[in-house]
Amino acid sequence: MLHDKENMIVKAKFNNRPLDVEGEFETFLDSVYGNCFTFNKFNKRSSRRAQPDYGGSSIVILSYS
Questions:
Q1: pLDDT of 59
Q2: 31-56 pLDDT, tens digit each
Q3: Distance, CA of 52 to CA of 15 (rounded, Å)
Q4: 9-25 residue pLDDT tens
Q5: Which residues lie below 8 Å from residue 17, measured CB to CB, with a gap of 6+?
Q6: Which residue among 29, 33, 37, 49 has its CA within the 20 to 30 Å range from the CA of 9?
Q7: Contact 64/31 with Cβ under 8 angstroms?
Q8: Global confidence as pTM
Q9: What is the side-by-side order of every strand in the sheet holding 56-60?
Q10: Which residues of 26-57 are buried (b: 16+ CB within 10 A; e: fewer)?
Q11: What is the per-residue pLDDT for 29?
């Protein structure tokens, strides 16, 4: 069963700002793991702070059978 990023990535933010899941994550198909998602593929984003509110974070739904 393959999952779309919109159904799997519930919430994502970078530097304490919400991310557009559709625009910020790229999907690719792995023969072992199925759909995989890449964020910041071309290193357009960076963070210089070490506090918990900065950098990247996401909430994802994981399922397996």
A1: 72
A2: 998 888 888 776 677 777 766 677 77
A3: 9
A4: 888 888 888 888 888 88
A5: none
A6: 49
A7: no
A8: 0.65
A9: 17-18, 9-14, 56-60
A10: eeeeeeeeeeebeeeeeeeeeeeeeeeeebee
A11: 92
**How many other β-carbons are positioned within 10 Å of the β-carbon of residue 4?**
12
If one compares 4 and 46, the residue with the highest pLDDT of the two is: 4
CA 24 to chain centre: 8
Q: Which structure tokens are listed for 37?
A: 């998602």
**Residue 23 has which token pair?**
């625009």
Task: Name the residue with tokens 């994981």.
Answer: 62
Q: What is the DSSP string of the chain?
A: ----HHHHEEEEEETTEE--HHHHEEEEEETTTEEEEEESTT--------STTSSEEEEE-----
